[in-house]
């Protein structure tokens, strides 16, 4: 496959990025943040999750966030819904696309969602069925696709198996997550060589964390396979609570700078993106992890 001419960026900063912040970000600040993201040209924004507030208190107000944002017709605002209860809350809030999240590691699955891989897939079946009954699209996440904090390296065949199961259950796209950021370009190639035997490249997205500084080169490796859907978070927000030292998602600004330099279309305005970056960085009182943001915001 050749490098795609257009790439769809899925902005996950408002959910995956903020969910591990210890200081609660207010509903008003989340709404303002998402509204700024909506002005950048992004077409896919993950805006929250409907999970137990006991486990993820930062996302407890997602219903209020979804009803409060200025929704643009051309933008999909999605939410994570691990169970039917979460899906029902998402439906009530007017969400039109949801996501379920599994893992390629048994140990991580049990630690993260308290059940085995097979048990997690069984729990997703009624969620996906009910979502489809409400004309909602469902996206699937697979965590730990190249490494696990408990099991070490993960076999590509394990990822392929879970990815195919999620696709067969009705997920329209499978996001392959390097949750702890241990992947390298060669590992990315091995992963895609396996996954693309059971999935079409149009069914695949990549979701890299930048713990070891490998996210951009891993994305470049995926682009060479024709992957045209990339998850990222402005300012490099995020982290993994189950992996010591794991840093955040690859920064949207860094991805956009690389794609612009390659002549790949995204329709995203860098200057407007930096406005959102500056806003949320001040809200959480942290400097952006994005090299591009730090260079451009201080220049």
Name the descriptors.
TIM Barrel; 299 residues; single chain; alpha/beta; PYR_CT
Description:
The chain is an alpha/beta fold and 299 residues long. It has one domain: Aldolase class I (TIM Barrel), CATH 3.20.20.70. 41% of the residues lie in helices and 16% in strands. It contains twelve helices and ten strands. The protein has an eight-stranded parallel β-barrel with strand order 1-2-3-4-5-8-9-10, surrounded by seven helices. A two-stranded antiparallel sheet has the order 6-7. Helix 3 links the parallel strand 2 and strand 3. Helix 7 crosses helix 8 and helix 8 packs across helix 9. The chain is globular and about 45 Å long. The mean pLDDT is 94. This is Hydroxymethylglutaryl-CoA lyase. It is an enzyme of class 4 (lyase).
Query: Roughly how much helix do the residues carry, as a percent range?
Result: 40-55%
What does the overall shape look like?
globular
First and last CA, distance: 38 Å
Domain unit count:
1
CATH architectural designation = Alpha-Beta Barrel
Into which percentage range does the β-strand content fall? 15-25%
Q: CATH top level?
A: Alpha Beta
Q: Please provide the ordered H/E string of secondary-structure elements.
A: EHHEHEHEHHEEEHEHEHEHHH
Low-confidence stretches: none
Q: Find the CATH topology.
A: TIM Barrel
GO biological process, one term: ketone body biosynthetic process
Keywords: Lyase, Metal-binding
GO molecular function, one term: hydroxymethylglutaryl-CoA lyase activity
Organism: Alteromonas genovensis
């Amino acid at each position: 496959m050749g490098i795609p001419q257009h790439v769809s960026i899925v902005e996950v900063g408002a959910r995956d990025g903020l969910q591990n912040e210890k200081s609660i970000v207010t509903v008003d600040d989340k709404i303002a943040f998402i509204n700024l993201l909506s002005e950048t040209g992004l077409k896919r924004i993950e805006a929250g999750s409907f999970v137990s507030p006991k486990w993820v208190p930062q996302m407890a107000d997602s219903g209020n966030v979804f009803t409060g944002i200025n929704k643009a017709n051309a933008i999909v605002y999605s939410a994570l819904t691990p169970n039917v209860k979460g899906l029902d809350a998402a439906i009530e809030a007017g969400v039109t696309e949801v996501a379920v999240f599994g893992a390629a590691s048994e140990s991580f699955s049990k630690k993260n969602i308290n059940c085995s891989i097979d048990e997690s897939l069984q729990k997703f079946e009624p969620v996906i069925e009910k979502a489809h009954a409400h004309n909602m699209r469902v996206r699937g996440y697979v965590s730990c696709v190249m490494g696990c904090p408990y099991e070490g390296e993960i076999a590509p065949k394990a990822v392929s198996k879970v990815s195919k199961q999620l696709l067969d259950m009705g997920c329209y796209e499978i996001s392959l997550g390097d949750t702890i950021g241990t992947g390298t370009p060669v590992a990315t190639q091995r992963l895609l060589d396996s996954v693309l035997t059971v999935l079409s490249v149009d069914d695949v997205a990549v979701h890299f964390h930048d713990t070891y500084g490998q996210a951009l080169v891993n994305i470049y490796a995926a682009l060479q396979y024709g992957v045209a859907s990339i998850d990222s978070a402005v300012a490099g927000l995020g982290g993994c609570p189950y992996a010591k030292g794991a840093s955040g998602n690859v920064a949207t600004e860094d991805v956009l700078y690389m794609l612009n330099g390659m002549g790949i279309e995204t329709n995203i305005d860098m200057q407007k993106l930096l406005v959102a970056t500056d806003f949320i960085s001040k809200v959480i009182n942290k400097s952006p992890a994005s090299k591009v943001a730090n260079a451009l915001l201080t220049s």
